[in-house]
Design goal:
The protein is an alpha/beta fold and 901 residues long. Strands 16-15-14-5-2-1-18-17 form an eight-stranded parallel β-sheet. α13 packs across α14 (508-521). The relative contact order is 0.09.
């Protein structure tokens, strides 16, 4: 995939939703093409829960989402994009589907609920049928069943509860309600039971998203057929894979996907990319549309749908809610993805009898079926964690780049002072926000004990079975296994290990991390012999205890649980508790050590170019807790910590907060936004206090406290007058804009493929979702002055340069740091990008810690030695050569983008 010539030069993320469908994206194409990107990056396009603003709650893999315009709308967008020289990248959600209301929206799940473990669709979902007496627990009731009893009713052959509609097991329709409930393949339960009793895997702790077993070849085929057809047609040119760490075998999935994509692009139909439906063998169209422009795959040659109908008379495998096919057959009446001898082939033979492409052994090997497509994975890496080199992808989506870019603008000395002021002001206990490491450890224990209790219970049951089956492992009590599992999990410093039964870990680091975690976990046991259970858990997690079904299940599920624990305990809890610098609490970040030196940045960029030259880079996404420009404002506080300490104390005296931690966090949030807009600030801060879980949570609401929070925000940040914001702006605006422009230029010119989130070509301050998922306005006229007016000009110049000279920035290009000389050289970060052999190229120059620079008297005699030749700044038109005086080069803007004249 990485060697494909179709690697984007830059992508532009559009968050599709009913308020911004394919037609709106199509209207934005001319503007986005003029901006300089090469591809549009679309949020998930398959059928989702009605009204969804994100699309990650897929209900039907066979259909393009009708609310967005259906497949006809997507094809029209692709045609218009291609006419303007743009391709399409699509977000893929392999890990989960929605468990929606009404449940009929998810046809495979409906079938499972109706027919239980014997349903042909039971293999789709990660359900533990050994628990709950062979039923699926559905935690949907607003209270205990005894209190909700009167709200259940039978209507039109279904069991109804508010918006929910559940199928009835055949033959149970006439039973009295108590007997009818007992006779179903599911158990309706109080929503609070999910924490401890749930017996299906979910996305993190969201019970409305049920995990899908894409490791099963049949499930892979059914859930990817439509996407692969879109790839084959040339409608889709690349893929972003959401949350691969939730999968049982991420590498196995990515290899299957790579083979399937290569086979799809090797059948002779994928080249024109104009969105037209290609003709199949025999001259017949292989993907006729239905009346709504939705269906991508045909009925078989007998004209009959192949899947059995559900209770409502609709085919559960072939018909979605609007009649879209789920598991199509091809023209010859055969399934389009027969397995080969080992059950792994996921795509049909191409024309001429070519078999699907075999594994390429890594990246870039020539396939039999055809060329791959640029693919990146939403893998969250710890600071020094490598992406497994064997994954057949271009790289990550780029959160690792975000951390290194942001960190370059953090003043480490100022951060130390800011942290001391925070600790004195907030007075938080060490493990509740006072110390990063202690806060993470406590949050992990809370999550693994409470929110993920059901997941740990399932691991414990599995471990108990394989211990009971092995005489050498008997007498490890369930409590000891449960304790060991928890203690190892909370000590893992990464999202998950990559190990499987019968193969070595993906990296040596995985084994080292698990051994280290196990060594620490022994401390939880007072009896040394009992502590030996930790080694059992460690070896089972590494896949070294055996190769039975339970061994395989434990190895995969341990890693999946580790990923959920890391996300919930760090990103969704500790980030909101430890808040000296809110901008450091970002996806993939390390609030305990956010600062990055220029040397560390250059080393990271060089590794990126060497190992993953076509991987993604990002600054803002639909998941960042604050947009890049909002973070730039907060990061500026590390250059003026004493001022901030005085300011937040004064502001809190005039508008007291329920607690000092809230005051510190709320005022930084308002500063990030740049104003006190109640409609945006109040929901973001309330979300933060619930995620922190210090005095209220999502599941145990403290209504009185939340009312106090709202009242404080209303009387404090939201009521602050112009003089308050003018005073804040006088201190923060200048450094923040320098940070924002510097980060933008680094993002657009460092190694990797930059992904711009909608609207971020302008100065754009946004808070956590849903604030950052507002419908975009690409190309909208915006009034801006000063440096704010420069960001769109900078973005356009850099993107167009990337498009015109891809050899300077893509695979095979060069990267070399440039070192300034003089008393303030530490404030300059610069590098040169070149083509093969070091010919020609572009130079990036950015200012870091601009306030400190001004306090030191400016650039003075500091100079930047340039490579030979005369260079012109694309942003100002200024020219320079030799040893350029930074005081002159950066007199108008704090950044420069130079090319040879």
């Amino acid at each position: 995939m990485t060697a494909d010539p179709g690697t984007p030069t830059a992508t532009y993320r559009l968050q599709l939703q009913p308020a911004f469908p394919f037609a709106a994206a199509e209207r934005a194409v001319p503007y986005l093409a003029s901006l300089g990107v090469s591809h549009l990056h679309l949020s998930p396009v398959l059928e989702a829960v009605p009204g969804s603003t994100h699309g990650y709650d897929v209900v039907d893999h066979s259909a393009v989402r009708a609310e967005l315009g259906g497949v006809a709308g997507l094809r029209a967008l692709a045609r218009t994009a291609r006419a303007h020289g743009l391709g399409l990248i699509v977000d893929v959600v392999p890990n989960h589907m929605a468990a929606p209301a009404p449940e009929r929206l998810n046809a495979p799940l409906w079938e499972v609920l109706r027919n239980g473990s014997k349903s042909p669709y039971a293999r789709w979902f990660d359900i533990d049928w050994r628990a709950q007496d062979g039923k699926v627990l559905l935690p949907v009731l607003g209270g205990p069943l005894g209190e909700e009893w009167r709200r259940l009713r039978i209507e039109d052959g279904t069991l109804r509860y508010y918006d929910h509609a559940f199928p009835l097991r055949p033959g149970t329709e006439g039973l009295p309600l108590p007997a009818l409930l007992d006779a179903q393949w599911y158990r309706l339960g109080w929503w609070r039971l999910a924490r401890t009793e749930l017996n299906y895997r979910r996305f993190f702790t969201i019970s409305e998203l049920i995990a899908v077993r894409v490791e099963d070849p049949e499930v892979f085929r059914a859930t990817h057929a439509t996407l692969l057809e879109l790839v084959r047609e040339g409608v889709v040119d690349g893929l972003r894979i959401d949350h691969p760490d939730g999968l049982a075998d991420p590498e196995g999935y990515l290899r299957r996907l790579d083979r399937a994509v290569r086979a799809a692009t090797g059948d002779g139909h994928g080249g024109d990319g104009r969105g037209t439906t290609p003709e199949g063998e025999g001259g017949q169209r292989t993907a006729p549309e239905n009346g709504g422009g939705q269906r991508l795959t045909p009925e078989d040659e007998r004209g009959q749908r192949t899947a059995p109908e559900n209770g409502g008379g609709r085919g559960t495998a072939s018909d979605g809610e609007n009649g879209q096919r789920l598991t199509p057959e091809d023209e010859r009446g055969q399934r389009t993805a027969p397995e080969d001898g080992d059950g792994l082939r996921l795509t049909p033979e191409g024309e001429g009898g070519r078999r699907a492409a075999p594994e390429d052994g890594g990246r870039g090997a020539a396939p039999e079926g055809g060329g791959g497509r640029w693919t990146v994975v939403e893998k969250i890496l710890a600071r020094d964690e490598p992406l497994p080199a064997s994954w057949p992808v271009a790289g990550t989506t780029g959160y690792d780049a975000l951390h290194h870019i942001d960190g370059l603008f953090v003043d480490p000395d100022g951060l130390e002072k800011l942290t001391a002021l925070y600790r004195a002001f907030a007075a938080s206990p060490a493990d509740l926000g006072g110390d990063w490491a202690a806060t993470v450890r406590r949050a992990a224990r809370e999550v693994v004990t409470h929110e993920l209790a059901a997941e740990v219970a399932r691991l414990t049951r599995t471990a108990s079975r394989f211990c009971a089956a092995d005489v050498r492992l008997r007498d490890h009590a369930p409590w000891a296994l449960r304790t060991a599992i928890r203690e190892v999990l909370v000590r893992l410093p990464v999202y998950r290990p990559y190990a499987s039964v019968g193969t070595p870990p993906a990296t040596d680091a995985d084994a080292v991390l698990l051994r280290s975690a196990a060594a620490g976990a022994r401390e939880a046991f007072t009896v040394p012999l009992e502590a030996r259970v930790v080694e059992v858990v460690r070896d089972a997690a590494l896949g070294r205890l055996g190769d039975g079904p339970d061994h395989r299940d434990f190895c995969a599920r341990f890693a999946q649980t580790a990923a959920a624990l890391r996300a919930k305990s760090v990103e969704d809890t500790a980030f909101y508790r430890y808040t000296p610098l809110l901008s450091a609490g970002e996806v993939g970040g390390d609030p305990g050590r956010p600062a990055v030196t220029p040397e560390e940045f250059h080393a990271f960029a060089a590794r990126r170019l060497r190992d993953w030259p076509a991987g993604g880079t990002v600054l803002s996404t639909h998941d960042t807790k604050r947009s890049a420009d909002a973070r730039a404002r907060v990061t500026a506080l590390t250059e003026c910590p004493a001022w901030w300490g005085r300011t937040v104390a004064e502001l809190t005296r005039s508008a007291p907060a329920p607690d000092p931690h809230l005051a510190w966090t709320a005022w930084q949030t308002a500063l990030a936004l740049g104003h006190g807009d109640a409609e945006r600030l109040v929901p973001a801060v309330l979300k933060g206090v619930r995620e922190a879980g210090l005095r209220t949570t999502w599941t145990e609401r403290n209504a009185a406290y939340e009312e106090e929070v709202t009242a404080f925000l209303t009387a404090g940040p939201c009521a602050a007058g112009p003089s308050v914001w003018a005073a804040i702006g006088a201190e923060v605006d200048g450094p923040a804009l320098a940070n924002a422009l510097g980060a933008a230029l680094l993002h657009l010119t460092m190694p990797g493929v930059p992904d711009l989130y909608m609207g971020t070509e302008h100065l754009w301050t946004a808070l956590v979702d849903p604030d950052n998922r507002r419908p975009p306005e690409p190309g909208a006229e915006r009034q801006a002055q000063g440096l704010a007016a420069e960001k769109p000009l900078l973005t356009r110049a850099a993107l167009r340069l990337r498009r015109e000279r891809p050899e300077w920035f893509g695979p095979g290009s060069g990267y070399a740091p440039l070192t300034a000389e003089g008393p303030t050289a530490a404030h300059c970060t610069a590098f040169v990008r070149t083509g093969a052999g070091g010919r020609d190229g572009a130079i990036t120059v950015v200012t870091r810690l601009s306030r400190r620079l001004a306090e030191a008297g400016g650039w003075g005699a500091t100079r930047l030695p340039l490579p030979p030749g005369r260079w012109r700044d694309l942003l100002t038109g200024r020219t320079a050569e030799g040893s350029a005086a930074l005081a002159e080069l950066l007199s108008r803007l704090p950044v420069a983008l130079l090319v040879r004249t």
